[in-house]
Known about the structure:
By secondary structure, the protein is of the alpha+beta class. It contains three helices and six strands, in the order H-H-E-H-E-E-E-E-E.
Amino acid sequence: xxxxxxxxxxQKIQGYYNLSDEREIRxxxxxxxxxxxxxxxxxxxxxxxxxxxxxxxxxxxxxGRSSGTRYGTRFLDLVPTKDKPKKRNPSTKTYRxxxxxxxxxxxTKNTGIRDAQGRYTQNRxxxxxxxxxxxxxxxxxxLTGIWSYERGKFVSDYSDFNIRNQPTS
Length: 169
């Protein structure tokens, strides 16, 4: 499964590398962010930050490189009550998401400990620690999986996700 995820991520990044027109590059980056904004309002998402094609990243030689897998959501019903935002995000230029971290090497910490409602829990049923974060300015997001309530696991084929039975926000 992990091999399949890395292959799909690699294909998306290769497609990004092959773009030459500034407009195509920007459209690709915006489409990736749009996917995340849609699915993160419905369920948990597994995603990776990929460094954008800009002057700073070219200078540092990291264009198209992934900075690691993250897990998060923007669906407030999945966020523990104590961590729900007290007020709206005052900035219209940033998107915030509830981040539950990244898996450590040789660990399955973030892969299968969500309950039937998709809430991220530890074995004792306690909500895991998370924090509200914003997108990184020099990166874009590549979605590598969404949490399927029916299957109880992350799926990378979006057509497999039955959106009709999900609560709306």
